[in-house]
Amino acid sequence: MGTIAYMSPEQARGEAVDARTDLFSLGVVLYEMATGFRPFRGKTAEAVLTAIKTGKPDCPTASGCRIAPALEHVILKCLEKDPALRYSRPPRFTRRSRTFGGRARSRPGAGSS
Known about the structure:
Elements: H1 9-12, H2 19-35, H3 45-54, H4 69-78, H5 90-101
Helix pairs in contact: 2-4, 4-5
């Protein structure tokens, strides 16, 4: 099932999930890394689930954090309630994320003969 705070809305409703659910969870992690707090909060597990299903997170920069606009866009797109509005699969997310992270780096030793 997973940790409640990182569940997607469709997962919280008991619906079918796919890779876009993982991208929602990644959006929660990125939001938390950028701001220092989770996008969906509550005093009880039920309150957190309700926030995930119906709440809208504040823009990360509203908390005073300084991040690139492209990163904020990626985070908010990952946190879309409707899976159809999120990235359709991880490769699209990866291509988009390169716009704020510079060139992709290979693993140490990768590509060496």
